[in-house]
Structure formats: C-alpha cells, structure tokens
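The protein record quoted in full:

***
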Amino acid sequence: MLLLPAEKIGILRLMPFSCQRFFGLLICCLLLGHTGCVVMRPNSQQHVYRGTSPTIQQGESDAGLYQPWNLSEFQARSNALGTPYRLVSDSQPTAPRTPPPPGALQRLLPQPGATPTPQSTPPRTQTTSPAVQFMPILGIGQALRNEFRPSNDRRWSQNHAVLQTADFNGNMVTVRNVRFSRYVSADVYTTQYYDATFNLDDIRTIDLIMVPFQGMTSVAHVASSFGFADGRQIALSIEARYEEGEKYDPAAAGLRQFELIYVLADERDMIRLATDVHSNNVHIYRLDFQPHEVRVMFVDALRRANQLATQPEFYHPLTNSCVTNLLDHINKGRPGAVPAGFRTVVAGLLDQHMFNLNLVATSAETFREAREMAKVNWLVERYGDLEYFSAGIRQNMH
C-alpha cells in the first residue's frame, strides 16, 4: 500500500473534480462574487522601474540629497534635521537578521541590479510515527488532522517566507524584517529585509489603502499605512499566506486552506506591486483619527503579528481577513468607530462606508470626488523608486 505524502493533503484534493467545482460555486455565492482579499491577476502590460538613488550617509545635509524634482510641490511634515521622508531601506543595516520561524525560508535575494537566479529548496524533513510506518493507511488520518491545524512550518512562497515581528522597549518599537521587494514581474523580484525603529510618541496618521480589482468594483484588497512625525510610513497588509505554487481560491479559503499573515512592508513594495505589476488602481485615504488613537491601533496590530508568529491561525474570507482584522484594530483605537454590518464584509465598499461615517479626512463633498482625489497611480509612476516616494504620492491629499 502506498503512503500518501503528508506535505500538503488538502480536503479539496481528496474530492472529485465535480465536487471541487460545486464547493467553489457555493463559496462564490456566499462571498458575493469573490468578496475578500483575492489574488491580483497580472496584466500583460507591465511597467518596470529601474531608477535608483545613491545611498545617503547619516549626517548628510538636505542640500546634498538626490532630488530630481521640486520638493516645494508638497509640504514637509517635520522640522527635524535630516531627510524627513527618507526610508531606512536605502541604507541596509549591518546587524544580523532576525531568524525566521522554524520551517520558513529566509532567502535574501541578490541586491537591486543583480539578475535573480533560481534557488533550490532543500528537502523538507518529515517525521513519521512508528504506527504510520507499520500501517501506512493511518498516514491519511494524520495528514488530514495536520491539514486542519494552522502551522508556520510549511514551504512558503518567497514573499511570505519571513514573518514580521516587533520588539517593544518603552516608547520605542523595532519592527523586524520589514519587507522591501523590487518587482520585475509577479514571479521575478528581489527581496530585502530591514529593521525599522519607531518612537511611538511620534506616530501621527493612519491611511486606508484600497486596491479594487479590474472590472469588479466590489472586490478589493484592503491595507493600511502608519505615518510618523519624521515622514516615514510603514505599510500593513493582512493576507492569506501562500505556500510555494499556491494562488488564492475562495473555496479553499472558506475551507481553511491558507494561514493568516501580517505583512509589514515598505510602501514602495506593496503599492508598486499593485500598480506596476498587477495594473490595479490604488486609492489612499487619510483617516480622521487622533495620534493617541492611531498609536493604540499600531501597537495592537504589532502585538497581533507577534501572536501569529507563535500561534498561527487560518485565514477566512468572512471571519479572519484583511477587512475584519483591520477594523478590529481601528475599533481598538476608537471603540465603536466602525460598527459591524454588510459594508464591513464587502471589501470593495469599505472606503465608501468609512466616508459615510465621516472617518475620511478630506475636503471632498461627495464620495466620488474623494475617491478620485485618493487615486495615486500617476503619482506612483512619477516618483517610482525614489526615496521621497511616500511623501510624493501624498502631495494631493487634502
């Protein structure tokens, strides 16, 4: 008798093909047309930016910075010395990286400019109990039992291989392994990780990032970005965590086939993945919350990321998704700010719902006007991979 592999035996793979389609159709109906965080399909017309800026040494003055545009186009939000908007990823730290959780693949790809080369994955060791070795049929039950237990020990895709965590020290917090990927296509990219330290007293803003998918206005991915007094931004994307070769499937998500991951990333990674690679629109809304409320949201999100690093959970498009978790953090900062309802489940309607609740800080009189003002695609194309990216794409935010 053959022993079925315990690597990844999904309940869907044990069903006949017709049953898979039936369950897929059923979940699609429940999700109102694949509502939730679904995979962003790449477009054949992709834009690849190769612009780079020189590394800025600490202590250099603003006059010596690489500034190919007029900085007076947008108002500086900090009077501190140095570069108010430069992100730390431009000068990689020399400290050793925090090791990923057991089983994750922390592959630091070549530096920008180098040609990515395929990397082989070492074989994963499997432990088999004596009972399974004696009666291989028991391996089926063991595999199914493991399948319905969330785990951080799987063959993860490159962009989901390393978890982000946070170390707290009083008012200071260090986010470990902030992701910064430069994309040539959805499957070809280089990835770097860096640590970023923030003073929680300097947190100022939270922005809602909406990524509606082409041709489906009610389907979108929802993310957020936290802003600090020195101009730095750190993006948070709550996603289904993919294993190697996996893509999002609503039926599989409804049957708990994906783990949940909190991706803390450089904005140039997350936003340009949506605009340049997947050719989706991106809308950024400044939410109307006070700094002390934003601080509670940010800390709560980081503690949740730490929890997932030791206690993994399954992603679910209705109960444990990008929308439900983000709104949980928002309601921690201001209890009852976003009451539960239909629009808090349909991701593509969240920005309009927040506008109707007067939680969007904008001068627009109508949501249609606010949505148009929040679109940043042309600004992303203009500022590309430059160090003032986060400031540049927000210059029309008012």
